[in-house]
From TrEMBL:
This is Inner-membrane translocator. It is found in: Cell membrane. One of its GO terms (cellular component) is plasma membrane. GO terms for molecular function: branched-chain amino acid transmembrane transporter activity. Keywords: Cell membrane, Membrane, Transmembrane, Transmembrane helix. The chain crosses the membrane at residues 7-24, 30-49, 56-76, 82-103, 110-127, 158-175, 210-229, 249-271, 283-302. Its main location: membrane. CDD domains: TM_PBP1_LivM_like. It comes from the Bacteria. PANTHER family: HIGH-AFFINITY BRANCHED-CHAIN AMINO ACID TRANSPORT PROTEIN BRAE (PTHR30482:SF10), HIGH-AFFINITY BRANCHED-CHAIN AMINO ACID TRANSPORT SYSTEM PERMEASE (PTHR30482). It comes from Acidovorax delafieldii 2AN. It is a multi-pass membrane protein. The keyword Mitochondrion does not apply. The lineage of its organism: Bacteria, Pseudomonadati, Pseudomonadota, Betaproteobacteria, Burkholderiales. InterPro entries: ABC_transp_permease, LivM-like.
């Protein structure tokens, strides 16, 4: 695990991602993995505001839907190119996130989560009921695939796989730079204690809002990719169950770690896929597995490993002292 968190470990993960199509049997596996990558991007964003800053945003899937509908509306109704609409998917989410952030982040703890839960449901209702803009319950069909870039075409599952993988790698690289910077340590200080962070001279509202905007930017970009990949979107994209799925990914992998949410977002969908043969009974198996993980690995896979490594270092250091 320590090796995976090093530079060489990250390079190994990138190499495995590049080689995955060579070992997969069919396009279905590429589709499952590509979808997992898209939700991994959104989960990484949620982990920034929840795991690193300590604010549990239950409207995260709503912002993912904002990005998806930005691409769908602009490409289908206004004939924008996919790339222009994709660039705006993140920008629209950030603008909306700024105004909702300065309003909601005045609340703390459960009050913030309940408020964002209500905001997320309002976003779902707006998408479902505003037929003139979002096409209502019918959804938006016929979203065009990403236009070619030079000789690169994105009209096959393999090409779309590598496109999504590229944005996942770029998103992970940027997030790694953020969390290892002074800004990332500022977010962690806010998570640990608002009062202590404020005593150190940290502007709470400004930094919380910045973390919120960065978080929803990842959600918006993931939504834009989702629209271009699936080519059809409906109000269900904004459902709060997607936020709970992403929360599960963080908990399984390790909340507040860089590698954990990525591992959770990739491992859990594949586990559910392999339990498909159980049909409606698969959750009878899947549920207890999650319960056991929460009981015996409360900090997630990566978080528990880091805690174990820290305890071992303390035990080894005590005799020397």
């Amino acid at each position: 695990m320590a090796f995976l968190e090093s530079k060489w470990g990250w390079l190994l993960l990138v190499a495995l991602g590049l080689a995955f199509p060579l070992f997969t049997g069919n396009d279905y596996h590429l589709t499952v993995m590509s979808t997992a990558y898209i939700f991994a991007i959104a989960t990484i964003g949620l982990n920034l505001i929840t795991g690193y800053t300590g604010q549990f945003n239950l409207a995260h899937s709503g912002f993912m839907a904002v990005g998806a509908y930005t691409v769908g509306i602009l490409t289908v109704d206004h004939q924008f190119s996919f790339w222009a609409a994709f660039a705006l998917s993140g920008a629209v989410s950030v603008v909306l996130g700024y105004f909702l952030g300065i309003l909601s982040l005045r609340l703390k703890g459960h009050y913030f989560s309940i408020f964002t839960l209500c905001v997320g449901y309002i976003m779902f209702l707006v998408i479902e009921k505003w037929d003139g803009l979002t096409h209502g319950t019918v959804g938006i069909m016929g979203i065009p695939a990403p236009e070619p870039i030079g000789s690169l075409r994105f009209d096959t599952p393999l090409a779309l796989y590598y496109l999504v993988f590229f944005w996942l790698v770029l998103g992970m690289w940027a997030m790694r730079r953020i969390v290892n910077s002074l800004l990332g340590r500022t977010f962690v200080a806010i998570r640990n204690s608002d009062e202590l962070a404020e005593a150190l001279g940290i502007n709470l509202m400004r930094n919380k809002t910045l973390a919120f905007m960065l978080s929803v930017f990842y959600a918006g970009m993931a939504g834009g990719l989702y629209a271009g990949f699936v080519r059809f979107i409906g109000p269900g994209v904004a459902g709060v169950e997607h936020t709970f799925d992403m929360t599960m990914y963080m908990i399984v992998g390790g909340l507040g770690t860089l590698l954990g949410p990525l591992l959770g977002a990739l491992a859990v969908p594949w586990l559910t896929q392999y339990l498909q043969f159980l049909q409606e009974y698969r959750f009878i198996v899947f549920g207890p597995i999650l319960v056991l993980l929460v009981i015996f690995v409360p900090h997630g896979i990566v978080g528990s490993y880091q805690a174990w490594r820290a305890r071992r270092a303390d035990r080894e250091g005590a005799p020397r002292a």
